[in-house]
Specification:
The complex is a heterodimer of chains A (276) and B (343).
Chain A lengths: L5 H22 L2 E3 L3 E3 L5 H8 L1 H34 L5 H9 L6 H12 L4 H8 L13 H25 L3 H9 L4 H12 L1 H16 L3 H7 L6 H11 L3 H29 L4
Helix pairs in contact in A: 1-13, 3-7, 3-10, 5-11, 7-10, 7-11, 8-9, 10-13, 12-13
Chain B lengths: L3 H23 L2 E7 L2 H16 L4 E7 L2 H11 L9 E5 H8 L28 E13 L23 E3 L3 H11 L8 H12 L3 E3 L2 H9 L5 E5 H9 L4 E4 L5 E9 L7 H11 L2 H11 L2 E2 L8 H7 L3 H4 L2 E2 L3 H6 L1 H12 L2
Helix pairs in contact in B: 2-9, 2-10, 5-6, 6-14
The chains are: A mainly alpha (276), B alpha/beta (343).
Chain lengths: 276, 343
């Protein structure tokens, strides 16, 4: 049976671990504007990235956006997931497909749609101006607001489907029993549904957090040139600056921060709800 | 059984084939051109590929990307025995940076026969100049009745929040700021103070040239610094724009073509560069995109020349980039732009 994992492991080794080892080696090289990079074994790039306030700000901003989006996505997804998980209608398959539908549209195409909505002369501003709610067009494009909305739209289906699968497995009898004992709707949610949904909350949150940390297209297209997140910063170093060593260093820092938060979150969830 | 007659005719055929092979290699085959897409790529196809090279038996494949990814690809592939591009098109400053690592073959005047028609000031050992333009001030004619005359005028507080810049042109915007502060192509130091002043004047930054064009059209911003050629294209697209050649001088930009040392079809690549210098093709580019020809025998119709060319007095203010200085300073320029100006 163990042999069944061999093909997948080989693929990961060849296509992920191999290039990562190469990237790590590149991160220890030094940048040269006309030779691209000079062979070296120096931690200089890591020291620069860790101590430069510019990169510190980008890491903090990326973490902040990722945590905020994960939390908002969880709050928005839970009611929809509960509805989907408890659904017994013959339309359930259709509802699942409808939830998945946004994932059929690429990030760039979706962001282009948001751009048309959020622009100064876009639909949102046109409606607000027509209705007299605002007298001047709102600045939505190229702000963190636009990025948060754009990211949530991307990751919401992942959270809904992960939560719905777990909620579906919680026996409905438990809710009935709690209601029979006089628990209110909120109390049933808080004391029964939520604790039993923790595996789904943990899995969904980690999945969404990792996706948010690595956001590229949404951050670039909706955040604009002044908005900073790690994935666009990595791209900038590789492609705009031709600084592969620094690009590789930032990529590893992004990976490290994401892993630390993911592992910390998983352990915290497991400890908090191990009796659940 | 093979008869003597069959054998002779077969060997004669093989010999003929063998003698034809070098000829086929000498002219024809696939040429991979690393180029920008959009209008530029389409014009290459319409004005150069179809009328000049395809009839000669070449097959042209465009490897479409922006300047930066192409530069990165060339640098990454430079050690490979075979590269992915036969012809690489880049802006002059990027061409200089890539050429420093010995990526390109010298231009072979025997294979690029039209090289002698190139304006002497645009010639280079490693690239042919395809088209060129100048960095000027563009303004919305509906909103700006008294246009600025210099880059420095763009810092006038009356234009607060009305100046827009394209993020991708950060080296050029930095040079404009340096010129406004008394610097120049070989002294970008004054740019840093001027960029911070610009930031306090709420200058707007757009991720691409197209986003900047949309902002000029919607009158979100009224002024920018941009290639005269792009201003010509935007005017053709219906944006009400005028231009001013700044008092400090107009930095020139030349878009060049070169042949990587590891190109698979060098003969075809040089034939491509030669075709890029074709007079008719050059006039076609001026007509559609507003870039000025680089060869002496490409004469523009008068009405077009007025729109895309500079007058004698204005040409005297063209500024040639200091490639070595800009290349050595590239990381500082990018860092300041990202960390201090945009940050």
């Amino acid at each position: 049976m163990a042999l069944l994992v061999v093909p997948a492991c080989l693929l990961v080794l060849a296509l992920l671990v191999g290039p990562m080892i190469l990237m790590f080696r590149i991160s220890l090289n030094q940048f040269h504007p006309t030779q691209m990079m000079v062979q070296a074994l120096s931690p200089e790039n890591y020291i620069k990235a860790a101590t430069d306030p510019y990169y510190q700000q980008i890491i903090v901003a990326t973490l902040g956006i990722a945590l905020l989006c994960t939390l908002l996505t969880l709050v928005l997804a839970f009611p929809a997931a509960y509805w989907l998980g408890r659904m017994e209608s013959r339309w359930k398959s259709l509802a699942v497909i409808a939830t998945l539908f946004p994932l059929l549209v690429g990030n760039v195409v979706r962001s282009a749609g948001w751009m048309a909505l959020f622009a100064r002369g876009g639909l949102v501003n046109l409606v607000l101006l027509k209705l007299g709610i605002t007298s001047e067009p709102l600045e939505i494009m190229y702000t963190p607001k636009a990025v948060v909305i754009g990211i949530i739209a991307v990751v919401l289906p992942y959270m809904i489907l992960t939560l719905a699968a777990v909620i579906e497995s919680i026996p409905r009898d438990l809710e009935d029993a709690a209601a029979n004992l006089g628990a209110s709707g909120f109390r049933i949610f808080w004391r029964v549904i939520l604790p039993l949904s923790v595996p789904g909350v943990a899995a969904g949150s980690i999945l969404v957090f990792v996706l948010c940390m690595n956001t590229y297209a949404t951050a670039v297209l909706l955040g604009g040139p002044r908005f900073k997140m790690m994935a666009p910063a990595v791209y900038d170093q590789f492609v705009r600056g031709n600084n592969w060593p620094m690009g590789a260093t930032l990529a590893f820092m992004l990976l490290a921060v994401t892993m630390v938060f993911t592992v910390f979150g998983s352990v915290a969830f497991a400890r908090r709800y191990k009796t659940a | 059984m093979i008869s003597r007659r069959h054998f002779l005719s077969a060997t004669a055929g093989a010999a003929a084939l063998a003698t034809n092979l070098p000829a086929a290699r000498a002219e024809g085959g696939q040429i991979v051109v690393g180029t920008w897409g959009g209008d530029y790529g389409q014009l290459l196809s319409d004005i150069i590929d179809k009328p000049i090279l395809i009839p000669k038996g070449y097959e042209i494949v465009q490897d479409i990307a922006n300047n930066d990814p192409r530069k990165t690809k060339l640098l990454a592939e430079r050690q490979s025995r075979r590269g992915s591009m036969d012809v690489a098109l880049l802006s002059d400053s990027d061409m200089y940076i890539v050429a420093q690592s010995g990526t390109f073959d010298p231009i072979d005047a025997k294979q690029v026969t039209r090289l002698d028609k190139v304006f002497p000031e645009l010639r280079s050992d490693i690239a042919i100049p395809h088209i060129y333009s100048a960095q000027v001030i563009l303004y919305n004619t509906n909103q700006v009745k008294t246009p600025p005359q210099s880059f420095a005028d763009l810092w006038d507080p009356k234009w607060r929040g009305r100046v827009g810049l394209a993020d991708i042109l950060y080296p050029n915007n930095t040079l404009a700021a340096a010129l406004a502060g008394g610097g120049g192509p070989s002294n970008l130091d004054p740019a840093e103070k001027k960029l911070l002043e610009w930031r306090s004047l709420d200058v707007k930054i757009y991720p691409s040239n197209e986003a900047l064009a949309a902002a000029l059209k919607s009158e979100e911003v009224w002024l920018t610094t941009m290639w005269l050629a792009r201003g010509f294209m935007w005017k053709k697209a219906g944006i009400p724009l005028g231009h001013v050649v700044p008092k400090e001088g107009a930095p020139a930009i030349v878009f060049q073509g070169s042949v990587p040392k590891n190109a698979k079809n060098k003969q075809g690549a040089f034939a491509y560069l030669d075709a890029m210098l074709d007079a008719k093709a050059q006039v076609g580019f001026a007509d559609k995109m507003g870039y000025v020809p680089t060869v002496t025998d490409a004469v523009l119709p008068e009405d077009l020349a007025v729109q895309v060319s500079l007058s004698e007095a204005e040409r005297a203010r063209l500024l040639k980039p200091d490639y070595a200085y800009a290349a050595a300073r590239t990381q500082r320029t990018q860092d300041f732009w990202n960390k201090e100006f945009k940050g």
